[in-house]
Amino acid sequence: MKAPMKFFTVFALALAGAATARPQVVERKNITLEGARRVIEAAKSEARAKNAPGAVIAVVDNGGNLVALERLDGTFAAGSTISAGKARTAVLFQRPTKVFEDIIKGGRTPMVALPDSLFTPLQGGVPIVVDDQIVGGVGVSGAASAQQDEELAIVAAKALHSAGMTASAPVSYFSREVVDDAFSKGAVLFDGESGARNYMVHASRREKAGQAEVHEKDADIIYVREGAATLVTGGTVVDGKTTAAGEIRGTAIQGGETRQLAKGDVVIVPSNTPHWFKEVKAPFSYYVVKVR
Description:
Elements: H1 2-21, H2 33-49, E1 56-61, E2 66-71, H3 79-92, H4 97-105, E3 125-130, E4 133-141, H5 146-157, H6 176-185, E5 187-190, E6 199-206, E7 212-215, E8 219-233, E9 236-238, E10 241-244, E11 247-250, E12 252-254, E13 257-261, E14 266-269, E15 275-291
Antiparallel strand pairs: 1-2, 1-4, 3-4, 5-6, 6-15, 7-11, 8-13, 8-14, 8-15, 9-12, 10-11
Helix pairs in contact: 2-5
């Protein structure tokens, strides 16, 4: 009997040693401020594509703590609280918030008794998952519909991929109606100033000659869509004044090179290069991709 007892004693000690050797803590990934900003940028890009300017986007970390929030123009005041609540609910319960809205609609109304600080069962909150771990959550409120809130949140949540939680830039789509509307008045089609991307796209329109311009940081890639114009590049800006950081405007250009632009032409104006639409045959519309 002694030998079996000795065997079992050794076996038990081995199990105890193995248990002791196990890690006492686990490593969990968490979203950073930069990651949160990229998630928000993805939601903003999708909102523009869907013509939904009134959204509020909130991003929380894996403990439900607010990391970043952005309100787009035209939103309602309560949108900030609701979007943050959606994001927090998606993280704490590890489910999209639509799941809980559907459960309550199905008759399980006691769930609404949970405190508001913990539970916002409204469609539009989605966990952010990286390498099969929930690293945070995103909530969207104030779009055209609850379904659109969720669509924006889903796109935003996918903006981070597994390689170091860097951003996988979302595809931006602008319908013909959105583009035509932008060109009818001249507008920014895509704004990359948040830092997530180093370019912007302008749907530009001119009815008359403009000021001489110098962009100290941005190169302009111009594609003429309609009309004709006389463009002067290079030379010296007359009465140049700084109108914003890295931006100089003047009344004209002395010297320089003159070109006649027509539909289909492409011009690349490097940064720190004076340029001036000296004459314009209206309507003159053109794409400008600004690259920094």
